[in-house]
Design a protein that fits this description.
Chain A is mainly α and about 325 residues long. Chain A has 16 helices and no strands. Chain A is globular and about 60 Å long. With about 475 residues, chain B is α+β, with helices and mostly antiparallel strands. Chain B has one domain (about 20-340, about 405-470). In chain B, a hairpin with a 2-residue loop joins strand 9 and strand 10. In chain B, helix 2 packs across helix 6 (about 170-180). The interface of A and B includes residues 1, 2, 110, 159 and 313 of A.
């Protein structure tokens, strides 16, 4: 496979995952806005921070409003991580690697792009927001589904998965880091209504409410939430799950090509350093520091993969 | 123009149904117009979803456009096709022999059949190719001969596309779409298949590999996703099961051209390039090109890679050389050309120029190096102002132009809101050339001028395409 193709697959699936994560964050923000009585514009800033798009927003806007925040996250062309930008980038990469995709995947991707572009051509009004977000989630799910259902399990598939899970791990680590202070076990605020809202934000933004309830019941507690999202191996959006998928797929590549690279050593270190402790040790180390370290390690891993598999000249 | 009515391929000149269309007409009479309208929309949806688009240069937004597809097939009888394909084969052989000759001994110039200047002063002539032996002796591996028709038995070659003819993906997708939408038509008519083209192309390319490569690696070279024909490049690579590469994926490693893979550099034996000569090798041709592979020409001259089509083939489809094609065919095959040329005035010759200036409003004038229907004058359709302006250009650089009579091109029916209506068409059959022989896919790409009365079929100027059938007689 061409290095360029590996690069295109990696980024196609990263952008696809990003579009889905961003739309989920918009949904969460809207949900909070509707269920709280006081003004929630401050919460939108926090939502944009978790999405990693707040700085760009603030450089172009004087104030944070719900309408402008939603527009920025869904459809702004100035925001490279808006849903529209991410879907366009995913589709552009899909064109680049078209020979590596099955017909089904290409069509699902192209249809996703055409529909999203049409629905996001104009500002989305509040009444249409739930339907638009549903549409985005359905179409990205269709690309993922055709990928699962029609693609050979070879290096093409591995690079697609590595892109997906690097983005996902990055996303969850960022969400946790923006909200880390509400997860710190502190005597004062346990059970306060503020925390309940914050915790719900976190769980919703990674579609984890149902899963969490199955495992921990109705009683939300910060340590359990942190454990669930960082260390639970059953939760498909936890850090542990995502990182172990990255490692699995890198291992498949190594055995397929018969060659191990520096990135393999790096991912092993990542697992050993960050995934082998319990939640108490993580809090002891410092949750914020821990998450910052993971974000840096993920970025370094992505860079090493680019080098090892010759994404660029 | 003459008073004879225009030849229609379905209804002839006198509204009498021609035999190849009999079964089709039967079917059509039983069809409901509203259903066909829905089918026409369905076809467009299929094309959009599959991404069968072309990019329009100079437009950032809305960059991908559909080439309109017409659901009415163009039908050619097996007998007509046999005659045509004999002519095409003869012409393609002559083109290859001509290319070999002008990059070697130039016998045709020595024999006085072509003036020396027509070669040496031609921009499409590549001095770097002099004396080079392309693997298998083949220059034009893939050719598209543009034909027009004016009567029952009257075909003309309009242009020989010997560089990088495009459009074959539309031929294949048009057929695929028709098979899906109107399967019954293919049960009622015995249509010669075209689907083996990608496999034939790969086999033909592999057979041209340099000596000693028994399982040759083939790749398609594209300028990238912003190129107008990117869809086709990706399509062909995909259908052949080979890599689609860009210049920056390639470099010369150990005397071979190699592509950068996830496992290191892997050598390539045959490169089906869809970039122009100028963008092939910055060391040998255009130093400003970011698209080329530095040093590929040295590998080529050493006989260690096949470039399809060979660099420098443009000299054979140049419009000035075109006018000599009857002589070229005769010189190399010893036979009279089976396919006729459109009579052509070379404006570089004073007598011809005088005639062209006198008859400008009746003629089609084309730039020698132009393509895509740009920069040409269609006399009968031009305003007085157009004519005056063109006259100035023509007098300033006569050598830049050729002129031809306005042919009354045949029409075929297209589907409009009110049913069938005649429109002008041309035909581009696709030809594969290898050491083991010449392979012509039955049919080819029919381009149709969708505007009533228009003669311009180019997709960049409002032309469409349709499925082209060659019947099994």
């Amino acid at each position: 496979m061409l290095g360029k193709t590996a690069n295109g697959l990696f980024w196609m699936y990263r952008h696809l995952e990003r579009a889905e994560n961003i739309s989920r964050l918009v949904e969460t923000g809207q949900r909070i806005a509707l269920t709280r009585l006081e003004s929630s514009d401050g919460e939108w800033l926090s939502i944009m921070q978790t999405a990693g798009v707040a700085d760009g927003y603030l450089s172009r806007h004087d104030e944070v409003t719900k309408e402008a925040a939603i527009d920025w996250m869904l459809r702004s062309k100035d925001n490279p991580s808006s849903v529209l930008s991410a879907i366009s980038a995913a589709r552009q990469n899909a064109r680049l690697v078209r020979t590596a995709l099955t017909h089904d995947v290409w069509e699902a991707m192209n249809r996703c792009y055409m529909q999203v572009r049409e629905r996001l051509a104009r500002k989305v009004n509040e009444r249409d927001l739930p339907a638009v977000i549903d549409m985005i989630k359905q179409h990205t799910a269709l690309v993922r589904g055709t990928t699962q259902g029609t693609m050979l399990r070879n290096d093409i598939f591995n690079f697609a998965r590595i892109g997906t899970y690097l983005e996902r791990a990055d996303n969850i680590a960022r969400i946790l880091d923006v909200k880390y202070y509400v997860l710190l076990p502190s005597v004062n605020s346990v059970g306060s209504s503020i925390d309940n809202v914050q915790w719900e934000t976190i769980l919703r933004s990674v579609s984890a409410r149902g899963g969490y309830r199955m495992v921990h019941g109705n009683q939300a507690c910060s340590v359990d939430i942190a454990r669930f999202l960082i260390l639970d191996r059953r939760m498909p959006r936890s850090l542990k799950f995502s990182i172990s998928k990255i490692r699995d797929n890198l291992d498949y590549l190594a055995s397929d090509y018969g060659l191990r690279h520096p990135c393999h050593a790096q991912v092993d270190t990542l697992v050993r350093r960050f995934m082998s402790h319990d939640i108490d040790s993580i809090f002891e180390y410092g949750l914020h520091e821990y998450l910052q370290d993971i974000l840096a390690a993920l970025a370094a891993l992505g860079h090493q993969i680019e080098i090892d598999y010759r994404f660029y000249e | 123009m003459s008073e004879t009515p225009i030849f229609d391929e379905m209804w002839g000149r006198d509204a009498e149904l021609r035999p190849p269309y009999r079964r089709f007409q039967n079917w059509f009479e039983g069809e409901d117009i509203a259903r066909l309208r829905a089918k026409q929309r369905e076809a467009e949806e299929v094309f959009r979803l599959t991404g069968i688009t072309f990019n329009v240069y100079g437009r950032a937004e809305a960059e991908e456009r559909l080439i309109p597809f017409d659901i009415i097939p163009r039908i050619i009888s097996g007998r007509e096709w046999q005659r045509l394909s004999r002519g095409i084969e003869q012409r393609v052989r002559a083109i290859n022999a001509f290319l070999y000759d002008i990059y070697h001994r130039q016998e045709i110039v020595k024999a006085g059949r072509i003036p020396e200047q027509a070669i040496s002063r031609n921009d499409a002539f590549l001095p770097q190719m002099i004396g080079v032996e392309p693997p298998g002796g083949i220059y034009t591996h893939i050719v598209g001969i543009d034909l027009v028709r004016t009567g029952d038995d009257q075909f003309y070659v309009l242009e020989d596309n010997a560089r990088t003819p495009s459009g074959v993906s539309y031929m294949l997708e048009n057929r695929e779409t028709m098979l899906q939408m109107f399967p019954e038509l293919f049960s009622q008519n015995r249509v010669q298949p075209v689907q083996s083209y990608p496999a034939d192309l790969r086999r033909s390319l592999a057979s041209c590999a340099p000596n000693g490569s028994d399982a040759p690696t083939v790749a398609v070279l594209t300028p990238g996703i912003y190129n107008s024909a990117y869809f086709e490049h990706a399509f062909l690579a995909d259908q052949m099961g080979v890599e689609l590469v860009e210049g920056h994926d390639l470099r010369v490693v150990d005397g071979k051209v190699a592509m950068r893979t996830t496992q290191g550099y892997q050598p390539i034996d045959v490169l089906y390039r869809r970039v122009d000569d100028d963008f092939l090798d910055p060391l040998n041709f255009n130093p400003d090109s970011a698209l080329g592979i530095p040093g590929i020409m040295d590998v080529y001259r050493a006989g260690r890679i096949t470039i399809a089509n060979a660099p420098g083939t443009g000299i054979a489809d140049d419009k000035a050389i075109y006018s000599y094609m009857p002589e070229i065919v005769e010189f190399y095959t010893g036979e009279k050309a089976l396919l006729e040329n459109v009579p052509t005035w070379r404006c570089s010759e004073p007598d011809a120029l005088a005639y062209v200036l006198d008859h400008l409003s009746e003629l089609v004038v084309k730039e020698v190096h132009g393509s895509g229907g740009y920069g040409m004058l269609i006399g009968p359709a031009a305003t007085r102002k157009d004519l005056a302006e063109f006259r100035k250009k023509l007098m300033a650089r006569p050598g830049n132009y050729i002129a031809q009579p306005t042919l009354s091109l045949s029409t075929v029916p297209i589907f409009t809101r009110n049913g069938l209506a005649p429109r002008h068409v041309d035909l581009r059959p696709f030809v594969l050339v290898g050491p083991n022989g010449i392979n012509i896919t039955p049919g080819g790409l029919t381009r149709v001028a969708l505007k009533k009365g228009s003669l311009v079929v180019n997709s960049s100027q409002g032309g469409g395409t349709k499925d082209t059938w060659v019947l099994e007689d």
